[in-house]
Amino acid sequence: MVGSEETNFDDSNFSKDKTRVSKVILYSGRILDALQFVYDDDKPAPHRGGDGGQISSLTLGPNEYIVEISGSTGKDPFASVSSTIGAMTITTNKGRSVSAGMGSGFSPQTPFSYKAAASKQIFALKGRYYLSGMDFFISSVEVARETDGVQLNFDDSDFARDKKRVSQISLRSGRLLDGLQFVYDDNKAASSHGGDGGHESTLALAPSEYIVEVSGSIGKDPFATQALTVGALTIKTNKGRSISAGMGSAFGPQTPFSYKADDGKQIFALKGQNYAAGKDCFISSLEVGMVKGVEKPL
């Protein structure tokens, strides 16, 4: 094929029903040959560009998302098109990145940089790629869509289903609830939800002790994110003991919540949502995921 053919792309529509970018794939050698985002672990967006170059990829963690895209464009003397992307770097809220292209053959080079607004993530790209002869090149890239920070559901019900008792509760907090974790049967820890900020407090339950009430409040924390976060949480046992986390004092207005187990029942697992904003992760909602009967001693 002689000459070049230009194609526009925009992944906004493809990404609209997706919850997170789980992987970034870049193809490059001297320049950026192609790029592709994978959503929700197994839903790849269309491959944009060609199949030349080496593959570089970055798999994002559950609370990780894209906050910056940067690079440079210029005239590649070895390509017949007027402009190609010579180098590109995609950076996440965790400070990790994936890069492609050398950019060293471009003179002059024009840098570009797109940074997500506070508590936002770069969720989809748009741009152009060229078919020049037998080769594809990415000629321009920009942000097509930003969304709020990553919000992921969690539910410990499945993990807890074959367990006998909650043996320990761990909460992390400062001004608000940063994270939580239940331990079952003395040494079987469920997943830790939220982030690792704040100070940790724990409550070890006695063999005949179990959870009967979970209460707290939710509101918008002006110092963290405009999303809802759990500002205060208290978990009580049948022995009258409790563990609390978060101050909730910076929230206005706050919405209280309370879940109490019926007589002869215990709260055995929680469910809710993690909200990742910047480098921090918070609990944005919480409710009871599983209630089970209390085993009477023989």
- SS element count, helices: 2
| Helix coverage percent | under 10%
Query: In terms of structural class, how would the helical and strand content be classed?
Result: mainly beta
SSE pattern, N- to C-terminal: EHEEEEEEEEEEEEHEEEEEEEEEEE
Query: How would a textbook summarize the main sheet?
Result: 5 strands, antiparallel
Which consecutive residue ranges, at least 5 long each, have pLDDT under 50?
A: none
Separation of the first and last Cα atoms: 83 Å
Overall pLDDT metric: 86
The number of strands is 24
Q: What is the 3D form?
A: elongated
Using the CA coordinates, give the radius of gyration: 25 Å
Proportion of beta-strand residues: over 45%
Would you mind describing this structure in some detail?
This protein has 298 residues and is mainly beta. Helices cover 3% and strands 59% of the residues. The protein is built from two helices and 24 strands. Strands 2, 3, 4, 5 and 6 form a five-stranded antiparallel β-sheet that branches. Strands 14, 15, 16, 17 and 18 form a five-stranded antiparallel β-sheet that branches. A four-stranded antiparallel β-sheet has the order 9-8-7-10, with no helix packed on it. The radius of gyration is 25 Å and the shape is elongated. The mean pLDDT is 86.
Topology (SSEs and partners):
Layout: E1 4-10, H1 12-15, E2 21-28, E3 32-39, E4 43-44, E5 48-49, E6 54-59, E7 66-74, E8 84-92, E9 97-100, E10 110-115, E11 120-132, E12 135-148, E13 151-155, H2 157-160, E14 166-173, E15 177-184, E16 188-189, E17 193-194, E18 199-204, E19 211-220, E20 228-237, E21 242-245, E22 255-260, E23 265-277, E24 280-293
Antiparallel strand pairs: 1-11, 2-3, 2-6, 3-4, 3-5, 7-8, 7-10, 8-9, 11-12, 13-23, 14-15, 14-18, 15-16, 15-17, 19-20, 19-22, 20-21, 23-24
